Amino acid sequence: MAIIALANLKGGVGKSTLAVNIAGAFAPKVALVDADPQATATAWAEDGNLPFPVIEAPLTGEDVQAWIETVLAIEAAQIVIDLPPMLGNATAAALAICDLAVVPVSPSGADLRATNRAIELIAEARDQRHDGKPRALIVPSKVDRRTAAGAEIEAVLHDYGELVAPVISQRIAHVDAFTAGRWIGDYAKGSAAHVEIRTLASVIKKLAEKG
Ligand SMILES: Nc1ncnc2c1ncn2[C@@H]1O[C@H](COP(=O)(O)OP(=O)(O)OP(=O)(O)O)[C@@H](O)[C@H]1O
Ligand SMILES: [Mg+2]
Fold first, then answer.
1. How far, in Å, from the CA of 52 to the mean position of ligand 1?
2. Please, which residues have CB within 8 angstroms of residue 196's CB and are 6 or more apart in sequence?
3. How far apart are CA 74 and CA 76, in angstroms?
4. Cis peptide before 28 (omega within 30 of 0)
5. If DSSP codes are grouped into helix, strand and coil, which group holds residue 100?
6. Is the shortest distance between the CB of 12 and ligand 1 below 6 Å?
7. pLDDT value at position 167?
8. What is the pLDDT of residue 75?
9. Contact 121/127 with Cβ under 8 angstroms?
10. Who's near 133: CB < 8 A, 6+ residues apart?
């Protein structure tokens, strides 16, 4: 079993969008854990059009151990955890058990600052565990190459010293897929948005399953 957590302390960078679409690419042997009290992924699944289960499991109180046990008891080849945009018990617990932390970053100065802290948290979690995990993968997210920040985002992200994934562009299809309650491979199969997700999913799968 591979556990993949979508984490960033910055809101609106595409955590939930990537969590749902990565799970869509992994389906059907995947489960998505919605650890965000905003319940974006849970709402996405509401109409029953996602090809995988979404388990609503916010961790707002103190019962970290029970939450970890709930997640570890899920039977799936991959577990994708969508986290809230804040430093809290859910983020700490997910970083303690995941194989791979996926950190979406959109090209703006404010996002980069919050990302610094997220990368530090992942490094701290890795120091506390003695298995070299979690690995980290930074994903340039909602990228618009017409902007200066979007044109040079990879160069900036490589400075964090962690792996950087191929970009996920800003595309209207991602917004509309949410509205339709579908993942991108169902809503716009074969589209550029879907191809980017498929590429990202295969990178994530390899990293999460590697030793
Ligand atoms: N690649 C993309 N292209 C266009 N729009 C996107 C893309 N990714 C996300 N969005 C849009 O950006 C907004 C925020 O995305 P999302 O909810 O996935 O971010 P988040 O990091 O989970 O936010 P939060 O921190 O509030 O949980 C949504 O309206 C979503 O549809
Ligand atoms: Mg979200």
1. 20
2. 166, 167, 168, 169
3. 6
4. yes
5. strand
6. yes
7. 97
8. 97
9. no
10. 98, 99, 100, 126
Name which of 165, 210, 170 is nearest 193 in CA terms.
Answer: 170
> In this structure, what token pair is assigned to residue 26?
């992994």
Cβ–ligand 1 distance for 21 under 6 Å, the answer no
- State in Å: Cα 126 to ligand 1 middle: 27
Give the 3-state secondary structure of residue 181. Answer: coil
CATH code: domain 9-209 is: 3.40.50.300
How far is it, in rounded angstroms, from Cα 173 to Cα 201?
18
Q: Which H or E run contains 138? A: strand 135-140
63-92 pLDDT, tens digit per residue, is 999 999 999 999 999 999 999 998 899 999
Distance from residue 43's CA to the centre of ligand 1 (Å): 13
Segment 88-106, tens digit of pLDDT:
999 999 999 999 999 999 9
CB within 8 Å of 98: residues ≥ 6 apart: 3, 4, 5, 81, 133, 134
Provide the whole-model pTM.
0.97
Please tell me the distance from the alpha carbon of residue 110 to that of residue 163, in angstroms, as a whole number. Answer: 21
Q: Residue 131 burial (CB < 10 Å; 0-12/13-18/19+)? A: exposed
Which tokens hold the place of 17? Answer: 């969008």
Residues of the chain with pLDDT under 50: none
Is any atom of ligand 1 closer than 6 Å to the C-beta of 194?
no
Smallest-distance ligand from the CA of 188: 1
